[in-house]
Design brief:
Shape: globular
Oligomer: single chain
Order of helices and strands: EHEHEHEHHEHEHEEEEEEHHHHH
Helix content: 25-40%
Strand order of the largest sheet: 7-8-9-6-5-4-3-2-1-10-11-12
Largest sheet: 12 strands, mixed
Number of strands: 12
Structural class: alpha/beta
Strand content: 15-25%
Bound molecules: S-adenosylmethionine
Length: about 350
């Protein structure tokens, strides 16, 4: 039975973080020198993830996205993919990755039944990549993207966080690169989420600015019908498409059907949420599927958050979640929640 919240938003899409560890240190996500990690013994096993997916699917979830941290760091991820892909209730099984380890895993993930891959790629310039991520891994990421294209994924997407003065000069180059590898690029507005301790409103390049840059190069672009995806998609005069995710300047809370499960089983309703529902404890204490479903239904049916819209209303210069809070609770970090 589909479940709706107070704003008639269905519970539909679940993002599952499989690790809080990452092999990059992006300035907009993990800029600090050190981090507090989730205790290893708290990480959900594949069986536990499967059990929670079976709690969510009868309530309407049919889209899963595996994320992290960097999900490809999780050992034997393809086994989890195989287990989730085998569930009839799962109509869409996607993965978000930074691509560093994708070259060695793309074919196996495809064979395991993964439907779609999104690779985060912010720049095509090696030095800029090193400055942005603090790792010299651009070549590995590009190899990963080639491997994903060769493995035959039907839908390959590239996600780019656009930051003023950093990579906003690469919008056209990234569209052209996407075209060359058969991928659609989606430009994401820089968000003031937990962990983005260097965020300032001045660094945000708005959807309007991005469209102006793109139209200056290609001519008028046509908006395409909005699906339930977070991106608004556009058509270039030459037939190529791209997307913009304007979570910061034009949030889309009313259309949000997403929720998130951290690698240790905390269920979050919103990227901006400061608390979540711990599903690991009741699961490990022996709660039945029906009991967990009652818990999930009770939480979702009274959901009334609009995190990104509320953040926009605050119009503050300082970041929403200060570093001292992040140090106390890893669950507030974007790399723990999965993006
Ligand atoms: N490691 C994987 C990856 O790089 O795609 C998955 C996790 S990452 C947290 C998921 C997405 O969140 C990435 O596309 C990343 O660019 C995005 N992200 C992280 N911090 C962000 C921020 N402050 N604003 C906008 N997007 C952000």
């Amino acid at each position: 039975m589909p479940l709706f919240d107070r704003f008639e938003r269905p519970l539909r899409s679940l993002r599952i973080s499989v690790t809080d560890r990452c092999n990059l240190r992006c300035q907009y996500c993990m800029p600090e020198a050190d981090y507090v990690w989730l205790p290893r013994e708290n990480l959900l096993t594949f069986e536990e993830i499967g059990a929670l997916v079976d709690v969510f699917t009868p309530l309407g979830v049919d889209r899963l996205r595996i994320t992290g941290g960097e999900p490809l760091l999780r050992r034997d991820l393809r086994v989890l993919v195989e287990q989730l892909a085998a569930r009839h209730a799962v109509a869409d099984l996607a993965l978000t990755t930074n691509g560093v380890l994708l070259g060695g895993q793309a074919a196996a993930l495809r064979a395991a039944g993964l439907h779609r891959i999104t690779v985060s790629l912010d720049t095509l310039d090696r030095e800029r990549f090193r400055g942005l991520t603090r790792m010299d891994e651009l070549a590995a990421v590009l190899r990963g993207i080639d491997a994903a294209a060769a493995a035959g994924f039907a839908s390959l997407k590239l996600d780019t966080v656009v930051i003023r003065g950093v990579n906003d000069g690469e919008i056209v180059a990234l569209i052209e690169y996407g075209r060359s590898v058969g991928a659609e690029v989606r430009f994401i507005e820089y968000m003031d989420v937990g962990g983005a301790t260097r965020w300032t409103p001045h660094a945000v390049v708005s959807r309007r600015e991005m469209l102006a840059t793109i139209e200056a190069q290609y001519g008028t672009v046509l908006p395409l019908d909005r699906s339930s995806a977070p991106a608004d998609r556009y058509l270039l005069p030459d037939g190529a498409t791209f997307g913009i995710i304007s979570s910061t300047t034009e949030p889309f809370c009313a259309a949000c059907d997403r929720s998130r499960l951290t690698a240790d089983g905390v269920w979050l309703l919103c990227l901006y949420a400061t608390t979540g529902t711990d599903l690991r404890r009741p699961l490990r204490a022996g709660a039945t599927r029906e009991e967990l479903q009652r818990l999930v239904a009770a939480v979702w049916s009274v959901r009334s958050d609009r995190g990104a819209e509320e953040r926009l209303g605050m119009d503050r210069e300082t970041t929403l979640i200060p570093l001292r809070h992040l140090k106390k609770d890893a669950h507030l970090e974007m790399h723990t929640r999965g993006g």
